[in-house]
Automatic annotation (TrEMBL):
InterPro entries: AraC_XylS_family_regulators (IPR050204), DUF6597 (IPR046532), Homeodomain-like_sf (IPR009057), HTH_AraC (IPR018060)
Name assigned to this protein: Helix-turn-helix transcriptional regulator
Originating organism: Phocaeicola intestinalis
Phylogenetic placement of the source organism: Bacteria, Pseudomonadati, Bacteroidota, Bacteroidia, Bacteroidales
Assigned keywords, A-Z: DNA-binding, Transcription, Transcription regulation
SMART domains, per database record: HTH_ARAC
Pfam family, one: HTH_18
C-alpha cells in the first residue's frame, strides 16, 4: 500500500507570535523533493528515516536544526519517512534555543550537538510516541517552558525585529537605513541584531522575500497568462532581468522553466492553518 500523509497544526495563541505552524509528513515511498529557501528556520524531529541533502553532503539527524539558506536543495529518503517540523517566524527561533540563529546559516545541525537536555528529552519522548497530535502537545509544552525562562531582552528584540520583517514582507526594497529607523536602532546595531535573530543580513533576507513573493504571484496565477514583468514589479525586483536572474539562483530554474516541472508554491506567503 502506498501511503503519503501531510498535516498542518496551528500553534496555541501564546506561541503564535513566534511559531508559524507545525507540519507532519508520513510516507512509505522513496522521497526525491526539490526545496527552495523559505525564509524561516525550523526544528525537525524524525521518527523514521532522516533525509539526505546532497548539496550539503549530509543526512539530517533524528533531531535537526535547519537554519536560513540561500540555495535550492534536494531531499532524499529511501526508507519510510515520518517527521514533525516546527516552522518559526523568521526572527524567533533563537528565543527557544538561547543561541543566535546565525549559527545555523546554510546548515543542517544535529540538535543533539547543542547539549540542550530538555530538548534532547523532548526528542526521546517524540520518538516513542505514536500519536502525532500528542507529539505536538509535547513540543508546545517545551516551547512554552522556554518562553517562560527567556521573556526578557530577547523577547523585546524579537518584537523590534517583527516590525522590520513586516516591512520587508510588504516592501522588500526598503533600505537598511529605513529598517533601522523603524526599530529605533542605529544602522550597525540593527544589522547586528537582525543577523543574530534572523540568521542572515537584511539585504540577503530581502532576496529570499522577493523570491517567495514571486512564487506566490505565480502560485495564484496558475492557468492564466503570466507576465514576468508584472511579477517582477509586484515582488520588488528592479526589472524583469533582475527577477529572472535572482529566481534562477534561488530555485535552479528560470520562472518559466519551473512551471514545466512543478506547481509554484510560496511557503512564506501561504498560511496553511
Amino acid at each position: 500500500m502506498i501511503l503519503e500523509d501531510f498535516k498542518f497544526y496551528k500553534p496555541c495563541k501564546l506561541l503564535q507570535p513566534y511559531v508559524r505552524y507545525y507540519w507532519v509528513f508520513k510516507s512509505n515511498q522513496p522521497q526525491n523533493t526539490l526545496t527552495f529557501p523559505i525564509g524561516c528556520s525550523q526544528i525537525i524531529f524524525h521518527k523514521q528515516t532522516p533525509l539526505y541533502i546532497p548539496e550539503l553532503n549530509t543526512t539530517q539527524d533524528r533531531l535537526a536544526i535547519s537554519g536560513q539558506v540561500n540555495f535550492p536543495s534536494h531531499l532524499y529518503a529511501n526508507g519510510n519517512v515520518e517527521m514533525i517540523v516546527v516552522v518559526f517566524h523568521p526572527h524567533a527561533m533563537s528565543l527557544f534555543l538561547n543561541l543566535p540563529t546565525s549559527l545555523f546559516y546554510n546548515q543542517e545541525v544535529s540538535g543533539y550537538s547543542l547539549e540542550n537536555k530538555k530538548l534532547n528529552e523532548l526528542a526521546i519522548r517524540i520518538s516513542g510516541c505514536e500519536d502525532n497530535s500528542v507529539c505536538i502537545n509535547y513540543i508546545e509544552k517545551w516551547l512554552l517552558s522556554q518562553i517562560a525562562n527567556n521573556l526578557s531582552e530577547t523577547s523585546y528584540n524579537i518584537k523590534r525585529m517583527d516590525a522590520a520583517i513586516r516591512q520587508i514582507y510588504s516592501f522588500p526594497q526598503t533600505t537598511v537605513t529605513e529598517l533601522s529607523s523603524i526599530t529605533c536602532l542605529c544602522k550597525k546595531q540593527f544589522e547586528r541584531l537582525f543577523h543574530s535573530l534572523v540568521g542572515m543580513n537584511p539585504k540577503e533576507y530581502a532576496r529570499i522575500v522577493r523570491f517567495q513573493k514571486a512564487l506566490a504571484q505565480m502560485q495564484h496565477q496558475t492557468g492564466k497568462e503570466i507576465s514576468q514583468a508584472q511579477i517582477a514589479y509586484a515582488s520588488g525586483y528592479s526589472d524583469q532581468s533582475h527577477f529572472i536572474r535572482e529566481f534562477k539562483k534561488l530555485s535552479g530554474y528560470t520562472p518559466m522553466s519551473l512551471l514545466k516541472v512543478s506547481a509554484p508554491y510560496s511557503d512564506l506567503f501561504t498560511n496553511p492553518v
